[in-house]
Amino acid sequence: MGGHEIEQLIRLLGRLPGFGPRSARRIALFLLRDPQARLVPLARALERAGAAVKTCSTCGNLDTVDPCHICTDPLRDPSVVCVVETVGDLWALERAGVHRGVYQVLGGTLSPLAGIGPEDLNIIPLLDRLEQGSVREVILALGATVEGATTMHWLMDKLALYGGVTVSRVAQGMPVGGALDVLDDGTLAAALGARRPA
Q1: What are phi and psi of 17, to 5 degrees?
Q2: Closest Cα partner for 164 from 186, 194, 132?
């Protein structure tokens, strides 16, 4: 089929989410048919992104600046924090344009079977904001999975220690077993708009 370089390209592409060996071969073939127009610009963009992108120390988003553009946007309401599992979930909510507050990306969910405990989640920046007294509402926008529910209950116990903070969670439109980053914009808007107290 090809040399070591082609095999390595296919192997690396095959590690991407949603790509299997067949998809990886198709993409590699597409890129290699015109490497100067397709492969080289992609490689340069990947290299630039790898050098420029950083994790926001405030919310956990990925951006080229720290704090990120969302955290520093003066048109956003910093007193309303939407808690999500992943950056992909944050991007999904941003794409839908339904949240004008700020975010907290946990970086996953609690999963005792996988060895993921509270110390493995990016929760300290949220607790710091709560300590400062600048937060009036926390929206829990976690996936409707067993792990998401476990994490939500753990967070509700933590957040109950901060008086004066309303805790809500996304409501209708969230299917059981669903993840935010695969839902359509209308479903996301309905889920966030119909949130209810936790």
Answers
A1: -60, 135
A2: 132
Structure tokens of 97?
Answer: 């344009």
pTM of full prediction above 0.90: no
How far, in Å, CA of 139 to CA of 195, rounded? 8
69 CB neighbour count, 10 Å cutoff: 12
Query: Cβ(19)–Cβ(27) under 8 Å?
Result: yes
pLDDT digits (tens, 9 = 90+) for 83-122: 999 999 999 999 999 999 999 999 999 998 889 999 999 9
The C-alpha atoms of residue 190 and residue 172 are separated, in whole angstroms, by 7
Residue-wise pLDDT for 52-86, tens only, equals: 999 999 999 999 999 999 999 999 999 999 999 99
